[in-house]
Automatic annotation (TrEMBL):
<feature type="region of interest" description="Disordered">
    <location>
        <begin position="159"/>
        <end position="181"/>
    </location>
</feature>
<dbReference type="Pfam" id="PF01381">
    <property type="entry name" value="HTH_3"/>
</dbReference>
<dbReference type="InterPro" id="IPR052345">
    <property type="entry name" value="Rad_response_metalloprotease"/>
</dbReference>
<dbReference type="InterPro" id="IPR001387">
    <property type="entry name" value="Cro/C1-type_HTH"/>
</dbReference>
<protein>
    <submittedName>
        <fullName>Helix-turn-helix domain-containing protein</fullName>
    </submittedName>
</protein>
<feature type="domain" description="HTH cro/C1-type">
    <location>
        <begin position="13"/>
        <end position="67"/>
    </location>
</feature>
Amino acid sequence: MPLPVRAIASGRLTALRDRAGLSKAELARRIGVSTRMVFFYEGGKHTPTPQRLQKMAQALRCEVEDLTGVRRGQECLVDLRFAAGLTLDQATELLRRTTVGRDLHLSAPRLSAVEQGRSVHGRNWRDPETVGRLPAELAKVYDVPIRMVVDAWMRTRPHDPVPVRPGRRTSKEASSPAEATWRSLNERQRIYLGEALRDERMTETEMWMRRVHHLPVPRPAEWRKLPLALRAPAQVVGYTRLQERLRRNGVHDPGVGATLHALKRRGLLMTSVDVFHHPAAGEVTRIRVEMTRRGRAVARAGLGESAEQKPAAPLLSEWLWGVLARVAGAGPDGLDRDALSGRAPFHLGVGYKNGSGGRPSRGFIDDVSILASDGSYVIGYRWKLTPLGLRHVIEYASEYRRRYPKIDTTVLSVVAEESS
C-alpha cells in the first residue's frame, strides 16, 4: 500500500547535495529551512513538504523522483501530487472548486484515502461514472496528461475498476472535415496516405536516434521528403522502404501514377524530384513525397487517432500498441532486449522519460535480468510486462482491436486467461 507521503530515499539527498556542490547551510538557505532541518532530512527523521521537495529538487538541479527513489513509470497518485508541489489541503481546495469535487464532497481525508488505496465512503463514491470524472480534474490540478493520472490510479488502486474508459466518437466528431476527406478517398488512396504517415513516423524515430548518438541530423524540411520511387530497373536498385510498405498492402505499381497525382491535387501530399548516386546504377532520379499538414490530419483521422488523442481515452498509438502486444505475446519468457529499438522504451519502459523535460514513460514494460541457472551472474535481459502493463492489455484489448484491427492480438486471449 502506498504511503501517504513520500520520504527522501536513504542516502540520496547527501549524494545529490555533494554532486551539486552545496553545503547543508546553503541548501537550507535555498529551500527556506534551518541547517538542522536539512540534517534531519538527510537522516530520514523528517519528511519535507511537497513545496520544499520541489524547491530542493530545483536547488539540486534534479527531478523529484531522484530524491524519492520512485522510478519513472512507477508513479502513484501521491507522487503526482508531490511533484506538483501541493499539500493534501491545497489539492483538495482546488478540486472542491470543480463540479466532480463538489459531487463527491471531496475532503482531505477522502483524497488521502484515494492516495493510500483505501475504500472511500460517502455520497456518489459508489458511482463509477462520477468517480471516473475525477482523474481529468486531477490531471488539471497536477498539470500532467490524464494518462499519467489513470496509470497512477491503477497502480495505487489495483483492485478498483479502471477509472476511465475510452470514449466513443460522437456523430459530430465522425463528420469532421478530416474524416470526411478520408471517407471520400478510394482504398488505394487510403493505403498510400496511411503508409506515408507510418513511414514518416519511422523516419522521425531514426532522426531522433541520430540525435541521441550525436550524429548529424538533416533539417526536417529535408528528411520529411520520403523516397518513393527510383527511375531505374527494380532488379538493379530494388524498392524504396515506402514502396515495400505499399507492396505489402497489395500495391505493386512504381508509385508515381494516378493515385499519387490524385492525393497531390487534393493537397494531401507534395512531390519533388532529385538525383542521387546509387552504388549499382550510378546517377538515379528519385521521386520523393512529403505529407502536408492536412494530409497528416486526414491520415490520423482515418486511422482512428483523432479519438485516441482525447484526454478521456488513455490509449497508446497504433505503433506503441503494436510494441506492447509483442511484449505481451512473448509470454512469461519475455522479449529479447535487442528486439525493441527506437523510441519504444522511452514511451513504455520503467525508468525512461520521453526526452529532455518530457513526461515519464507509461511504465508498462521493464527490462528484467535473467540469471544463470545457479544464480551467480546475469546472462541477459528480457522485456516483460509490468503488473500495470498486463492490466492495461487486459482492460483495453477489445478497444484496441476495434481501433487498430491490423495489429495481431491473437495471443492476447491466452495472456488474459493465464492472468486470471
